[in-house]
Records
---
Amino acid sequence: MSGATLHPRLQEIVDDFSSVPDKDRLQLLLEFSQDLPALPERYAAHHDLLEPVPECQTPLFLAVEVEPDSGRGTVHLFFEAPAEAPTTRGFAAILHAGLDGLDADEVLATPAEFSSRLGLADLVSPLRLRGMAAMLARIKRQVREKR
Amino acid sequence: MALPHDSAPKFAEYAHPEMIVSTEWVAAHLDDPGLVVAESDEDVLLYETGHIPGAVKLDWHTELNDPVTRDYVDGAGFAKLMSEKGISRDTTLVLYGDKNNWWAAYALWVCSLFGHPDLRLMDGGRAKWIAEGRPVSTGTPKRPQADYPVIDRDDRQLRAFKDQVLAHLGQPLIDVRSPGEYSGELLHMPDYPQEGALRGGHIPGAKSVPWARAAGADATFKTRAELEAIYQGEAGLTPEDDVVVYCRIGERSSHTWFVLHHLLGYPRVRNYDGSWTEWGNSVRVPITRGTSP
């Protein structure tokens, strides 16, 4: 696929998805969803600190932190989505695996259409994939505000 | 060979008790030949996290829709889909799913367009099955390929198109969306994505009866008396009415279609699946804003 170069960590995820046959790709998304880290206590007890992502079919909440370290701004991501929403959790887990711990500039360089490179459109439907694009847009906006 | 009906007293009150079964009934008949149970969810991965043992997956978005045209699969596509899932024309097909059976009702409505003879909904859906601690499996069932015949889809009785709705103005219409979508304040469901309607409001004359009012807290359908109080008492419908129901893309209104057509027995109920994503984008169709029909 064409388009902007991906950070190696995101490219690794794209390669993982493209290396498996269609049928196993959903299974891979399910495995991601099971690996989404739980919210740390400081957010679990303070839902008001989380930003809702209404573009996802099932409500998802996220928080973004940018460390003020020597101007690079290491980004940390936190997500919450219910267990009954494995697709949404899977999207969040992919972004967590790909972006958590990167520099602010690296996160901001992520192409908006990243979600379309995972080969999920036919399996998951483009409508459902919109949720991931919206999560990424909100993450990038928060990084810009907080760096 | 069709399976016996569920003789639960609650169902016997409904106009078509043969269209609904309980979780108990499904548990008792799970291994019966001639039965296929299918899960249809909003979330495309929920089935993979665990489903009724032996149940197949039927995805509304990736399987029942035509991938190019905004329409459902055609007769050949439906025959292929059913055959692959091990469903024959004489199979008793029981559908269930998440969110009050919202998507399961949608799948049942699409299967009805092909006139599948024995369709049933499992009352309470996935949530009730799990709440009762019944077994779930993550295994992929291996059903032998069936030979489902190619049946032309018949859109005349159960489906309404925009031109027909325009001609229907002045006759009973039920808008099953949330109050904010009905009034025009919101262009989409609360907490859901904007799906591209340019104008907000409702079809003139449509009465507002949000779809989930037909279900109780445990996701099961309300009793016939309770449903009559809502649709006849409050919304003023009568069984003789020619009714069109709609929502945003026709999924929530499938649930209401099931209630009116099968539980209350209205013979003439059509689902307008173009719904607000078509109406709210159409040039020069009439729209009413605010809380009154």
Note: Chain B has a mean pLDDT of 94.
---
Amino acid sequence: MSEVKIITANEAAAEAAALCRVQVIAAYPITPQTPVTEELAAMVERGDLEAEYLTVESEHSAMASIVGASQVGARVFTASSANGLLYMHEMLHWAAGSRLPVVLACVNRGVGAPWTILNDQQDSISQRDTGWIQLYCRNNQEVLDTIIQAYRIAEQTLIPVMVCYDGFVLSHTNMPVEVPSQDEVDRFLPPWQGQGLLESGRFVNLNPLILSEPRPDAQGNLMPGYMELRHRLHEDVLASLAVIHHTDEEFQEIFGRSWGGLVWRYRMDDAEHALVSMGSLALEATRAADSLRVQGLRTGVIGVRAYRPFPASALVQALAAVKTVTVFEKDVSYGYAGALATDLKAALFDAGVSVKFSGFVAGLGGRDVAAGQIVQAATDAILNEPRYGWVDVRGSST
Amino acid sequence: MAETTKGPLFARSGPAPGEAGRTGDWRSHTPVIDHEKCSGKDTCLLCWLYCPDGVITPDFPLEIDVEYCKGCGVCAEECPREAITMIEGRKTPAPPKRS
């Protein structure tokens, strides 16, 4: 039987990892991720969770340990935030390049300097090109459900999955969360068999230096070169779009909840204007859309759940009929625009969809974004010239 | 490589000469074995065990396949009798004439 608990997203993440019967956990505490590690450490200490909990000296070591454990067939979990996640960067590439089904909870936090412990999504966006699948959650229930889905996706595609949720906004906020029973999760998520590398009397050198050209190995088999393996990873990350979509459907069959797969829609059926965002900010945008409708602007919201792989077709389809698109995001690519706005604009251009397009950077370093501010920026973008801008930068005009 | 229906997913190899191609031309120093110090009697084969390229024979007198030896020097470092010397250069010196 499932049970409704009033818990934070961090507790939901720890509950989810335990329900997935993770076997090895390695994590280094960092605000706002710390309660995830504390909760899991306590579960292991109490004997409620049969897992190895490795206390490591850094995030780099945490991911390196997880990579090793996953490589020999363990189901693994770790979590991080901000500068900790950045410290993992090298090993994030290593996990994806080794095709390991690692699941990481990224509790989104702004990156120093200047120092902040509060929320934005610059940390995970900065890991965009590591070859990981990135899924963004809008509430605590989605965090729990998405971590369970993430293992299915990762183990089916052999691509690591980063489950991202906003620090403090979700990580330290209590909400009712339906925690499924172990039986239900076991039915959805069978044990992982590993890559079959461990065999008695067999020596294996993993990730040896390989050259760019394909070449025969000592036994005469043609081995792919570096570029072939990179291409394979790229193709498989693209192909994971379908896996993410279907996994959400299969999840619904057992648990009765769907999160939209790649993207979710709010009041889009008759919408002329679309607000596009990720994570908890997208949920705030739904309140803004309600207000804009009261003003006579028929507005809906598209929430991007999968950022990598980028669901270009799903977004183009969802936005094909609107007149304006306004993106709100908690990250920026310095010297150009927000990452989501840039990618979305490219997808629309490729599909020949011509809309009035604006992109706003909002809520960096934990600055609160109220629905009214989204309404104000969106109204301006809808009625006036499209532009790239920032929301609520104080002491200067935006 | 991990095999799947669509071919290898990630890089993997077994310890065998030639797994990384003809690596002998990476060498800046070449190992030379003194067969008087290492004669086979009570001998350890640590060099054979440690060689990352698997290019040393386990039979006596030991031979090193210089076509694949990268010249890392691990064998010389591990040899307890100091029977292996790293000589500068890629070429194997001509064996000394026996007196």
Note: Strands of chain B lie at 12-13, 29-33, 84-88.
